[in-house]
Write a structure and sequence with these properties.
100 residues; 2 domains; three-stranded antiparallel sheet; 3 strands; elongated
Length: 100
């Protein structure tokens, strides 16, 4: 993701399409949200701020913490349900050692 000329924001994707009549149209996106207007215009900046509020960028630390919390919640549920009950005791011990 590069900086778009006319704005100081990073993370804006620029997509260029050739239309049926031969003209070229450029579209701008931020995290999948289309940004209307031309970079630097009030309409563009308003759309960008709205997209940034709707789709905040996760910092690597927060993303990693969220991933660990999700993984920690999955293990106990896996042990209560599913094929884990039918595993041999040695396999269960190895799995416990890995998950701790």
């Amino acid at each position: 993701m590069a900086k778009v000329k006319g704005t100081k924001a990073r993370g804006i994707n620029k997509i260029t399409h050739k239309l049926a009549d031969g003209s070229v149209k450029t579209y701008y996106y931020y995290n999948g949200a289309r940004l209307h207007g031309e970079p630097g215009s009030l309409q563009f900046e308003t759309a960008l701020r709205a997209a940034q509020r709707k789709f905040p960028v996760a910092t690597p630390r927060k993303a990693k913490e969220a991933e660990l919390v999700g993984f920690a919640e999955i293990i106990p549920e896996f042990k209560r349900k599913g094929p884990y009950k039918n595993w041999a005791s040695t396999t269960k011990i190895q799995t416990i050692n890995i998950s701790n």
